[in-house]
Target: Protein HflC
Amino acid sequence: MKYISLGIVIFIIVFVLLFSVFVVDVTKQAVILEFGKPVRVVKDPGLYFKKPFVQEVIFFEKRILEYDSEPTIVVTKDKKSMILDSFALFRINDPILFLKTVRNEIGAQARLDDIIYSEMRRVVGQYDFDDIVSKKREEVFEEITTSSREKAKELGIEISTVRMKRVSVPAENLKKIYDSMIAERQRQAALYRAEGQREAQRIKSEAEKKKVIILSEAYRRAQEMKGRGEAEASRILQTALSSDPEFYQFLKTLELYKSTLPGNVLIITPDSELFRYLRRK
Model:
């Protein structure tokens, strides 16, 4: 009878210990509930005790979790529809608040879906399509991350990042986008052609200007050389005249014959002074 009583006592002690001890894994954090109300949070791994039958333990992940949304249609500032496939990384940083607001990870995924979709639609609506897919993609998603993080704090969740996996456009909008791209390329080509024509005109005008300057300079130099030549010819002529006036008179008479006699009819007397060099001596 004594051993039976001892066995019962040992059984009760073991039974109570089983309901009083709990282990927190390194990847988990625990919330202790007393009559359904949270009274304590345990984040460090180890062996812990609780009040048996009065308190219960709920475990939550301490590691970073992933939120993977369904592809979402949003409209950009320039009224173009696009399909964004994004994901987010988050962790539970306030287990009690998390328990009160969303209860579990399934509830957290649903609330994050509302928050991130809402912020994505709002932020994307402030940017043009080309900015989101190229130049300002990082800026856009940093803004989505920041605004989503602020709203998620109310759920006991900390969002570390929101990023885009892929972007596409609805099939019915592809033609509009292609037409827009073609129009943009044509506009750029027209701009380049206009710039080329302006440059060609500038080069042509510059060449014409240089041409006028060169021809003017050449004409000036030619006139100077011609003037010097005429002056030199006049000087030589004056020298010849002073040395032999009779010979000069003979040359001028020959020039007169050449210019007047061929094809002309002159009525003059044979003893005219004009023919004095044609008479026989």
